[in-house]
Amino acid sequence: RVTIAPIPNKALGFADIGIKIRGGELSVRWEYENEHIKYGIQVPEGTVADIRIPGVSKTVSSGKYIFYSTL
């Protein structure tokens, strides 16, 4: 089980990171889009992830997800 809780920084503009774990690659990307922050999250097979971003507190299983939060 993993917790994903990115903290975006407008000075960076975006971040994209991935790590190989048992079951595949866990990846997180965030980027600023106008008045929103777009998050792309990939959770590998057999993994459960707790997503914690502004406006979203959710537990998900393997798959690809897109979330948006306001600034």
Summarize the structure.
The chain has about 70 residues and is mainly β. The chain has strands at about 1-5, 15-20, 25-35, 35-45, 50-55, 55-60, 65-70.
How is the secondary structure organized here?
Layout: E1 2-4, E2 14-21, E3 24-33, E4 36-43, E5 49-53, E6 56-60, E7 63-70
Parallel strand pairs: 1-5
Antiparallel strand pairs: 2-3, 3-4, 4-7, 5-6
Can you put this structure into words, describing what you see?
The protein is mainly beta. Helices cover 0% and strands 66% of the residues. The chain is built from no helices and 7 strands. The protein has strands spanning 2-4, 14-21, 24-33, 36-43, 49-53, 56-60, 63-70. The strands form 2 sheets. A 4-stranded antiparallel β-sheet has the order 2-3-4-7, with no helix packed on it. A hairpin with a 2-residue loop joins strand 2 and strand 3.
Overall 3D form: globular
Strand order of the largest sheet: 2-3-4-7
Q: What ranges have pLDDT less than 50 throughout 5 or more consecutive residues?
A: none
**Measured distance between first and last alpha carbons:** 28 Å
Strand content: over 45%
- Summing up helix and strand content along with how strands pair, one would put the structural category as mainly beta
Q: Percent helix among the residues?
A: under 10%
- N-to-C series of helices and strands: EEEEEEE
Number of β-strand runs: 7
Radius of gyration, whole Å: 12 Å
Total helix count?
Answer: 0
